[in-house]
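Lesson 9: reading folded outputs for more than one chain in a single document. The general rule is that every protein is listed as its sequence immediately followed by its structure tokens, and records are never interleaved. Here is the first one.
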Amino acid sequence: DNALVRSTLETAGNGAVLVVDAGGSMRCAMVGDQLALLGVRNNWAGVIMYGCIRDSGPIAGMDIGVFALGTHPMKSIKKGAGDADLPVTFGGVTFVPGEWLYADEDGVIVSEAPLL
């Protein structure tokens, strides 16, 4: 369900990164080009997706960083399920709202304080 992802990306990101725990699902995409474009328009720096995205080609050309487990052509259902502003753990990392996240093509680092 990506309804909460959409509603979050519709808000002002102020350079933040949205971290989504989609349970590692490979059954559908949680973000596509239209949601990524919302992120760009609303000043989100990136999306870390523990699940799949679609429209990876167009997203690659956008001014937003997106990490995902993979791609899937099918959209997700929309029921409004999910929680926001909670710590989530996947990939051996706990992501805590308000902490600093740095990413490049080699990976992601999370820190309690700014590194720069």
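And here is the second record, again sequence then tokens.
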Amino acid sequence: ILITEKMIKEMKTGAVIVDLAVESGGNCAASVSGKVVMKHGVKILGYPNFPSRIPFDASQVYARNVLNFLK
């Protein structure tokens, strides 16, 4: 565990933690595999296989940028 519960409590509200190791137990004490958890105002993303989600999101952002440029 790299990020303890105490560390999460000390973070500013609105902070985001992306736990890339959630499948193997996680690096954050509050992460849950397959879930987005809010703890003390901090959002903790526990998506398994997170890198596989990035191409879809990147494509959506690029498409939105092109659309806004053309408008």
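What the second record shows: The mean pLDDT is 93.
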